[in-house]
Amino acid sequence: MIAVLINVATVLVGSLFGLLFRSKLRKKLTDAIMLSLGICVVYIGIAGALDGRNPLVAILSMALGTLTGTLLDLDGKLLKFGKFLDRVIPRKNDGASLTEGFVSGSLVFCVGAMTIVGSFSAGLSGDTSTLLTKAVLDLVSSCMLAASLGIGVMLASGTVLVYEGALVLLAGVLAPILSDAAVDELTCVGSLMIICIGLNHMGVSKIKVADQLPALALAPVFTWLFGLFGM
C-alpha cells in the first residue's frame, strides 16, 4: 500500500502546484492552457483506445454503459455532489465545476493498464516499480489538470486511494479474472471516455462523461462472454 499512498501524495502535490500556478494566471491564459490540455488529453485517449482488441466490446460497453448511466442519472447525482462540495469548500467562481475536475482527474489517474497491472504486481509480488512510475506521471498530469480545472482534480486523489488500494488488496482474487484481454478492453473503453473529456475541455462538445462510467464494468464482462464463444 506504500506505493498507493505515494501515488495519492503525488496527485495532491501536483494539484497544489497547479492551483498555485493557476491563481497567478489571467482567464485568457487559463483558457488557452485548457484548450492545449484538451488536445493532449484527446491524444492520451486515442493512444489508450488503440489497446482494444475487439471493437464490439467497446461498442456494446459504451452503448449499454451510457444507457445505464443515463437511466441512473449518474451525471445529475455527481452534479449535486459537486454543488454540495461547492458549499462546503469556499472558492472563487473560476468557471470550472468541482464535479468536472473530480471526474476528469479520476478517469485520467485511474484508467489505464499501468494502474491495474501496477496494483496487481504490488499486491501479488510486492513489486511497486510500475505504480511508482505512474506516480511520477500523475505528478505532472495533476499539475496541468488542476491549473485548468481547479480543486476538483485534487479531490480525485480519493478515487486513486480507493481504486488502487482495492486492486492491491484484492489482487489475488481479481488477477485471475481480469485477463490481459480484459485489461486491454477496459483500457480502451476508459480511454474513449478520456477522449470525451478532452473534447469537453476544448469546448467541442458537452458530453456527460459520468453517465458513461458503467461501461468500465461492462468491458471485462463482454470480453469474458466473447471469449466463451471464441469471438
Walkthrough of the structure:
Helices cover 78% and strands 0% of the residues. Helix 2 packs antiparallel against helix 11 and helix 11 packs antiparallel against helix 12. It has one domain (2-228). By secondary structure, it is mostly helical. It has helices spanning 2-22, 27-49, 55-72, 74-88, 98-110, 113-124, 129-149, 152-155, 157-169, 171-174, 180-201, 214-228. It is built from twelve helices and no strands.
Shape: globular
Q: Termini separation (Å)?
A: 37 Å
Q: List the quaternary state of the chains.
A: single chain
Counted beta strands: 0
Uncertain spans, ≥5 residues at pLDDT below 50? none
CA radius of gyration is 17 Å
Strand % is under 5%
Order of helices and strands: HHHHHHHHHHHH
Q: What is the helix content?
A: over 70%
Count of helix runs: 12
Largest β-sheet summary: none
Number of domains: 1
Structural class by sheet pairing and helices: mainly alpha
Determine the mean pLDDT. 83
